[in-house]
Amino acid sequence: MQALCGLFGYTRQAYYKHLKNNAKHCLEEEIVLERIHSYRKWMPRIGGTKLHYLMNEAGYRISRKTLFSILRTNSLLVRGRKKYAVTTDSRHWMKKYPNLIRGFDFESPNLLWVSNITYIKVKGEFAYLSLITDAYSHKIVGYCLYHTLESEGTMMALQMAIEATPENKRIGLIHHSDRGSQYCCNDYVKLLKT
């Protein structure tokens, strides 16, 4: 054994110390994995950061880096849930109108209205804010906070914008959106044409 260790430039003591440390490391990893499985039994979606906190609270002194390495090696990392809401679905069957604003110059208000939907978290739930903004003045001409992404919220915002703007000022007005399903549905298009 001494000749083999000498060939690689190590002492015999270094070799045995390595074996002892490796065995100790494997045993510690087994104990950590056992503990992870017991936590995951009760909390299947618990992530690495919370696991690290719980392990340290229980007296298992393990670094965050080591814990994540063990989780990764054993395919135990949990994917985080997305914390945002998707507000646009442009892959729908409804008619999509051409983009009329390429190279468009705004010289005055009420030439171009831009519509968008954003989400707001209210009491742990998402609410959807539909906005219609005048592109020249940046004034919000219509809005509606609605509990779903259905077209009713966008239609209420559009109705508010129409009622707030005299008919003679809406002549030649262009309405621009991300062409999501709320803006391309028949009811919304019908309201736009009034």
From TrEMBL:
<dbReference type="InterPro" id="IPR012337">
    <property type="entry name" value="RNaseH-like_sf"/>
</dbReference>
<dbReference type="InterPro" id="IPR050900">
    <property type="entry name" value="Transposase_IS3/IS150/IS904"/>
</dbReference>
<protein>
    <recommendedName>
        <fullName>Integrase catalytic domain-containing protein</fullName>
    </recommendedName>
</protein>
<dbReference type="GO" id="GO:0015074">
    <property type="term" value="P:DNA integration"/>
</dbReference>
<dbReference type="Pfam" id="PF00665">
    <property type="entry name" value="rve"/>
</dbReference>
<feature type="domain" description="Integrase catalytic">
    <location>
        <begin position="105"/>
        <end position="194"/>
    </location>
</feature>
<dbReference type="InterPro" id="IPR036397">
    <property type="entry name" value="RNaseH_sf"/>
</dbReference>
<dbReference type="InterPro" id="IPR001584">
    <property type="entry name" value="Integrase_cat-core"/>
</dbReference>
<dbReference type="GO" id="GO:0003676">
    <property type="term" value="F:nucleic acid binding"/>
</dbReference>
